[in-house]
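Students often ask why inverse folding is considered easier than folding. One informal answer: many sequences map to the same fold, so there is more than one right answer. In these notes we will look at a single instance of the problem. The structure comes first.
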């Protein structure tokens, strides 16, 4: 199981993490905005984490003779998700320190402008600017940033794990007795 979990998790994490190196520069150059960037990011996560299905199926077919319980499939899927999430978060750390310099400042400007366009009052803008500043300070801590990044992809993996476990569970065939 370990080999399957590591292979499928690493590939899924590399796909999702690799897309960060493509989409983040586009975001910072204004080709994408933060809303469309979010859509691209979560779409990529769904595509990458579809490997959970194939990893669980591979484990069922190669290691368990075509039989797997919902619980065992859930464990395999959760472990693949965990590996993929860690690879993704590590990729973001590298991306953040290389191609995403100024990310938080650009994000702050974008969302402040969005608030202005929505008609926020000066007091609301000031309060929001304070919240964004607090976020920026917190986000400087690499352990907090790593945890926040994990929490971006983990729920997507959890949903796909549940779906995969439900779709792939297969009980052993018991012949009828006379």
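Output (designed amino acids):
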């Amino acid at each position: 199981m370990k080999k399957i979990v590591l292979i499928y998790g690493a590939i899924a994490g590399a796909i999702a993490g690799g897309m960060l190196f493509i989409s983040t520069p586009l975001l910072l150059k204004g080709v994408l905005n933060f809303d469309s960037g979010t859509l691209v990011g979560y779409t990529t996560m769904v595509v990458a984490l579809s490997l959970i299905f194939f990893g669980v199926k591979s484990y069922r077919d190669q290691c368990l003779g075509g039989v797997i319980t919902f619980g065992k499939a859930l464990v395999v899927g959760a472990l693949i998700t965990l590996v993929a999430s860690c690879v993704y978060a590590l990729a973001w750390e590298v991306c953040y320190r290389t191609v995403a310099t100024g990310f938080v400042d650009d994000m702050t400007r974008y969302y402040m402008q969005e608030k202005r366009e929505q008609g926020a009052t000066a007091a609301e803008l000031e309060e929001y600017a304070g919240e964004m500043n607090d976020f920026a300070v917190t986000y400087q801590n690499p352990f907090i940033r790593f945890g926040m990044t994990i929490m971006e992809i983990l729920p997507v993996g959890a949903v796909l794990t549940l779906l995969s476990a439900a779709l792939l569970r297969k009980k052993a065939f018991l012949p009828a007795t006379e």
